[in-house]
């Protein structure tokens, strides 16, 4: 993970600030930085989203391709994640430097989406055992400003909301071989329901308290963090601890409660923004990367 | 329960009319022809091609008699003798420290240019060299003055005054060096309750005003007591104001920071970073600064 070097006095200042619920930029321990979300930024994907959370910039593209279902789940489609930590974000990611972080993030995404009911995979099936939709979700890290997991999960949810999968019709031949026909209308497509898609909330332990949405400086002061994935209804689906330090069970319980609370409000805000963007329709002025 | 602030991105527009003082500035981008007149000497940021003077950086053209140069709008810090800089120690080497100052090369702080605690003046011995790490470690922040510039552009720093030295508790804000205005003094004790060091290299250090001046310490003993909440609020507000000024590309000096602080008082500290509040505050600051001049 990209990190900054801080002096001992600076770290002490941050830790004491968190103790008094006043972080360096004036936020409380449970406040997020202002986030900017935009969908449909990449034209040659089935769905895309860009999220800017402070100095963290994430771009997610979803491509829907036809594939064969997995053997153990013959009537379901599936998702494939790939995370690219580009050298744009920090010089540490040059060459193969970003691979370790990329695989860690991709594995976390796999774990979160492996829980039943997060995405309706049965709707992605075309012909059981023969054809199904495979959604390739590609995450690109453009800038690293702390709190990567949260920003990535918000961007993935927004991109899945924006994904439009073309409707297909299966035609049966006389010999029994099946043909797949794509509908002619480019706007005839199925959308995914992202109601149960979870979002990650990272809680970093600084001193005796924990903070949500840590900046790079705050991450340098925290020894242990808890990553929890929360659905919009406040249900916890997955939990992971990162960092060298240790967490005692009481603080884990407190962090879980905070995470559930913050996660619910995160989902409400995100859904509100996505609905607002959708309601603008074609009148929306696309900002993209040159705004 | 605080809602998570989310918004749709808006196309950024410039706040207020651009006020050209002293005539229009001749802005160029790399590749623009500055002049086809061969009578001029070329300075930094220009090159000659086809008997024309062409800019190699994006910035404003400056003319001094027959010398034409282009000063870039945003670049790494170039050390000048006498500048105050705030830097971070990156390496501890034999008889010197390497300091990162947002320039092309790391600056150098020689052991002989550093004040020993107690203000003694003596020759640096081998024990001093071994004890270097006790004075300054990797990651420590220091304020120093540029003593000289080596031929390759690296600056040599010195802390031969009691006002320079290791920095204690506070907040560092990193901005572009071109936004820090050159003034007589860069150490300011703001009336709102905090102090600020405006480094010429773009590193701004905000810290709580020390109660009494420790003359004997010379900046080596760091105060590790918790900073009171009222001071913290002032420091956080100043930090957000500086970030707001920088986002709207206003020059940073003590008056502009102070006006911005006063304009931000009606808002909550964390709201200052919201784009619409930022625009409003900076517009008010700009107005006050224009009133001050005219």
Automatic annotation (TrEMBL), chain A:
<dbReference type="GO" id="GO:0000176">
    <property type="term" value="C:nuclear exosome (RNase complex)"/>
</dbReference>
<dbReference type="InterPro" id="IPR015847">
    <property type="entry name" value="ExoRNase_PH_dom2"/>
</dbReference>
<protein>
    <recommendedName>
        <fullName>Exosome component 7</fullName>
    </recommendedName>
</protein>
<dbReference type="InterPro" id="IPR001247">
    <property type="entry name" value="ExoRNase_PH_dom1"/>
</dbReference>
<keyword id="KW-0963">Cytoplasm</keyword>
<comment type="subunit">
    <text>Component of the RNA exosome core complex (Exo-9), composed of EXOSC1, EXOSC2, EXOSC3, EXOSC4, EXOSC5, EXOSC6, EXOSC7, EXOSC8 and EXOSC9; within the complex interacts with EXOSC2 and EXOSC4. The catalytically inactive RNA exosome core complex (Exo-9) associates with the catalytic subunit EXOSC10/RRP6. Exo-9 may associate with DIS3 to form the nucleolar exosome complex, or DIS3L to form the cytoplasmic exosome complex. Exo-9 is formed by a hexameric base ring consisting of the heterodimers EXOSC4-EXOSC9, EXOSC5-EXOSC8 and EXOSC6-EXOSC7, and a cap ring consisting of EXOSC1, EXOSC2 and EXOSC3.</text>
</comment>
<dbReference type="InterPro" id="IPR020568">
    <property type="entry name" value="Ribosomal_Su5_D2-typ_SF"/>
</dbReference>
<keyword id="KW-0698">rRNA processing</keyword>
<feature type="domain" description="Exoribonuclease phosphorolytic">
    <location>
        <begin position="32"/>
        <end position="166"/>
    </location>
</feature>
<keyword id="KW-0007">Acetylation</keyword>
<dbReference type="InterPro" id="IPR036345">
    <property type="entry name" value="ExoRNase_PH_dom2_sf"/>
</dbReference>
<dbReference type="InterPro" id="IPR050590">
    <property type="entry name" value="Exosome_comp_Rrp42_subfam"/>
</dbReference>
<dbReference type="Pfam" id="PF01138">
    <property type="entry name" value="RNase_PH"/>
</dbReference>
<feature type="domain" description="Exoribonuclease phosphorolytic">
    <location>
        <begin position="196"/>
        <end position="261"/>
    </location>
</feature>
<keyword id="KW-0271">Exosome</keyword>
<dbReference type="GO" id="GO:0071028">
    <property type="term" value="P:nuclear mRNA surveillance"/>
</dbReference>
<keyword id="KW-0539">Nucleus</keyword>
<dbReference type="InterPro" id="IPR027408">
    <property type="entry name" value="PNPase/RNase_PH_dom_sf"/>
</dbReference>
<dbReference type="GO" id="GO:0034476">
    <property type="term" value="P:U5 snRNA 3'-end processing"/>
</dbReference>
<dbReference type="GO" id="GO:0016075">
    <property type="term" value="P:rRNA catabolic process"/>
</dbReference>
<keyword id="KW-0694">RNA-binding</keyword>
<dbReference type="GO" id="GO:0034475">
    <property type="term" value="P:U4 snRNA 3'-end processing"/>
</dbReference>
TrEMBL record, chain B:
<dbReference type="InterPro" id="IPR036612">
    <property type="entry name" value="KH_dom_type_1_sf"/>
</dbReference>
<dbReference type="GO" id="GO:0071038">
    <property type="term" value="P:TRAMP-dependent tRNA surveillance pathway"/>
</dbReference>
<dbReference type="GO" id="GO:0003723">
    <property type="term" value="F:RNA binding"/>
</dbReference>
<dbReference type="GO" id="GO:0000176">
    <property type="term" value="C:nuclear exosome (RNase complex)"/>
</dbReference>
<comment type="subunit">
    <text>Component of the RNA exosome core complex (Exo-9), composed of EXOSC1, EXOSC2, EXOSC3, EXOSC4, EXOSC5, EXOSC6, EXOSC7, EXOSC8 and EXOSC9; within the complex interacts with EXOSC4 and EXOSC7. The catalytically inactive RNA exosome core complex (Exo-9) associates with the catalytic subunit EXOSC10/RRP6. Exo-9 may associate with DIS3 to form the nucleolar exosome complex, or DIS3L to form the cytoplasmic exosome complex. Exo-9 is formed by a hexameric base ring consisting of the heterodimers EXOSC4-EXOSC9, EXOSC5-EXOSC8 and EXOSC6-EXOSC7, and a cap ring consisting of EXOSC1, EXOSC2 and EXOSC3.</text>
</comment>
<dbReference type="InterPro" id="IPR048565">
    <property type="entry name" value="S1_RRP4"/>
</dbReference>
<keyword id="KW-0597">Phosphoprotein</keyword>
<feature type="domain" description="K Homology">
    <location>
        <begin position="170"/>
        <end position="211"/>
    </location>
</feature>
<dbReference type="GO" id="GO:0071051">
    <property type="term" value="P:poly(A)-dependent snoRNA 3'-end processing"/>
</dbReference>
<keyword id="KW-0271">Exosome</keyword>
<dbReference type="Pfam" id="PF14382">
    <property type="entry name" value="ECR1_N"/>
</dbReference>
<keyword id="KW-0963">Cytoplasm</keyword>
<comment type="similarity">
    <text>Belongs to the RRP4 family.</text>
</comment>
<feature type="domain" description="Exosome complex component N-terminal">
    <location>
        <begin position="27"/>
        <end position="64"/>
    </location>
</feature>
<dbReference type="GO" id="GO:0005730">
    <property type="term" value="C:nucleolus"/>
</dbReference>
<dbReference type="GO" id="GO:0071035">
    <property type="term" value="P:nuclear polyadenylation-dependent rRNA catabolic process"/>
</dbReference>
<dbReference type="GO" id="GO:0071034">
    <property type="term" value="P:CUT catabolic process"/>
</dbReference>
<dbReference type="InterPro" id="IPR004088">
    <property type="entry name" value="KH_dom_type_1"/>
</dbReference>
<dbReference type="GO" id="GO:0000177">
    <property type="term" value="C:cytoplasmic exosome (RNase complex)"/>
</dbReference>
<feature type="domain" description="RRP4 S1">
    <location>
        <begin position="76"/>
        <end position="148"/>
    </location>
</feature>
<keyword id="KW-0698">rRNA processing</keyword>
<protein>
    <recommendedName>
        <fullName>Exosome complex component RRP4</fullName>
    </recommendedName>
</protein>
